[in-house]
Amino acid sequence: MSLRRFVIASVFAAAVCGGPPATARPDGAGPWKSVLPDAEYARLVGDELKLIRATLDKGLADKKNATKAKVSAVMVAAYAQTHALGNAGSAKKDAAVRERAVQLAKAAGDADADKAKKALADVEAAVKGGEDGGASTTPADLTRELDLADLMTQFKPERGGGKELEKKLKAVVQKRSAYTADDLKQAVDVGYQSAIIAQFTEVMGPETDSGAKKKSDWVKWSREMGTLGVDAAKAAGGPKPDGKAVKEAFKKLDDNCARCHAVFRD
Question: What is the C-alpha to C-alpha distance for residues 181 and 214, in angstroms, rounded to an integer?
Answer without folding.
Answer: 41
